Each structure stands twice: as structure tokens, then as C-alpha cells.
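Worked Example 4.2. Consider the chain below.
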Amino acid sequence: MTPRTVRVWKEVHKWTSLVCTLFLLMLCVTGLPLIFHEEIDRALGASAAPDSVAADAPMISLDRIMEIGHAERPNEAITFAVPDDDDPVWHLFFAPAVNSPKVTAAVSIDGRTGHILRVGDSTRSPFTKFVKDLHTDLFLDEKGMLFLGAIGLCFVVAIISGIVVYGPFMRRLDFGTVRPRTRRLYWLDMHNLTGMVLVAWMLVVGVTGIINTLSQQIGRHWQRTELVDMIAPWRNMPPPTQPASVQKAMETALAFAPGMKVSSIAMPGSPFAGGHHYGVYLHGDTPLTSKLLMPVMINAADGTFSESRQLPWYAKALFISKPLHFGDYGGLPLKIIWALLDLVTLVVLGSGLYLWAARLRTSPARRTDAVAHGLTQVQEHP
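Applying the procedure from the previous section yields the following C-alpha cells:
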């Protein structure tokens, strides 16, 4: 690699790092509690603990759950019904109309007693909801997500350019060398060392973060292509005035895919079901398949099976990226590892800012010394 090429890569690394570092510091700080959002929500009382009844108590009908939810909020429509992963609890999500993407409330109901456990604007605590909104879109919705996607792209470019310039920089030094001669030199070596140690993890988090910022675009594309094709035969038919039992729709979907579990059920008329179907979304029971969904369209008129297909590659990439971004694959041990790596990344980012600030402080002094040296040479050699 020529010296000129190295200089170009150094400039790329410098400017992409400067563009994204402050935002990355915010994302690392807000991402830390989101790794443990389930534990935090439980500690803050946001998780809906089920009633104390016999462990083998039977679940009541999902239709009855829906009736209880409607009675709680009679002027709104249920768009999704989502079972809790760990407890016998159903979370019903309400909106002004069934086809509205805006969630107005989440009602959690015990699936055995029908008791309303919690009513809120989401299933998260106010703290984790605030942190999540800041982390994912800066409170700017889709525009904020796309902006953070651009920041993530700068981050990935900064990592790649850092790898490129690291080789020539360490040509005369052993890997892991930290020179304590000066503070700036010490932090330069620490910045380079920790960056290279974490390079694979930072690339994973950066790339998955970029994919996550495109979730709305991916969802809309899937709706306009795959979902439209799945429900195309019913396009010109009038929607049912009295939808079939949602309990029957769920049972039909589970019978179609034995061994799978319900992830969520989209109501007829909602964006992820269409006007003629229940959209029953199933998932597997392994660490990987539990994150991937399989849509099953159930005819809302009579509760019979209509259509199902595997998700396309781009949707699978999204569903794999979301939990991988927060280390949500291996339980608490992986979360702790993710948190430690997040903390070390703060060292990488902070040391990068320190090095830039130190360089700005020393640059004027260097220019002054250069001018003084030049004047001295002129005086000595007129």
C-alpha cells in the first residue's frame, strides 16, 4: 500500500469517525439498559405478573380474552393479540381503527382468569420506552431511524478504514503494544488495540443496527409484495361482516404447523392481515427459529386455512438482526457479555474523541514552533 493510499484511508477513518462518534456514544449508553430491558421492566413493575392460580389451570378462550379487552376500551379497535413468551398472559394492542398503525394502548390479560393485569401505552416501562425511542429513532419516527442508519453506515466505514490503516501503523510494533511514554501515545495505542479486539463485534452491531433502521421499509415492502400476493384471490370480495372465532383461527394455524408457537395474531383489516383474514404469525422453539416468523393466513369468514409461505431473505435478515443487535439469543450470560463489550466500545469512542481534541490543542503550538524556527533560520542565514 502506497503512502498516499494510507493517507487517504486515514482521512476516511478520521472524518467518518468524527461524524458518528457523538451519536455512537449516545447509542452505546442507551443500548446498555436495552440489553436488560426485560429485567428492568420486571423490576419496575411493568411486566404483567399472572394471577396466582394452579399451574395446570386451563386457558380460557381467546375469544373471551378479546371480549374482556373490548369491554375495557370500547371505542378503540384491537389490531394485534400477542401471547407472552414466559407467562400465560395475552397482550392486546389497541388503535383508533383496526387499520391504523398507531398504538394507543396495550392491555395485558391473564389467560386463565381473564383478569386485566395492566393497561399502558406499551408493554414497556416508561423508562425503557423512553430509552428505546431515543435509541431507535431519536423521537423522530421514520426520519430518525433513517438518520441513525446513515450514522451506522459511517460507523461501519470507520471500522473498515481503521482495519486498513492499522496494518501500516503496527508494522514496527508487536500486536498489543501500549507505549506509556506520553498520555496521548498511551491512548492512541489503547484506542487501536481495543478497536481491533472488538472489530468483529462492532461490525456485527453496526450492520445489524443499519438493518434495524430499515424495519419500516422492509415491513412495507413485504406487505406490498408477499402479503398482497397471499391474499390476492380475495381482493374483490367483500370483507366478512362477522369474523369467525379468533380461537378457531389460532387453532387452525397451529394445526397447519405442528410444533410451532403463536408469536402474534393480526386482526382482520389490520395492515398485516388484510380485510379478509386473520394473520397468525408463528415461530419455532429453538434460539434461532424463535426469532423467525411464519405467516399463516386464516380466512376470517369461516376460520379455515388460506395461505402460508416462508419469509423472504430480507425479512429473515431483519428478524435475525433485531435480537442479535442486543444479544438476545443466549439468555442472561450473552446479555452480560454484550454489555461488557458495549462498555469497552465506550472506551474506543471516548479515546477517539480525546485523541482528536488533543491533536487540536497541539496543532497551534506546532504551527507556532514552525514559524519561530523559520524566523530563526532567516536571521541566521540572511
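The beta strands are 77-83, 89-95, 105-110, 116-120, 261-266, 277-283, 293-299, 305-308. Residues 331-380 form the longest helix (50 residues). Compare this with Example 4.1 before moving on.
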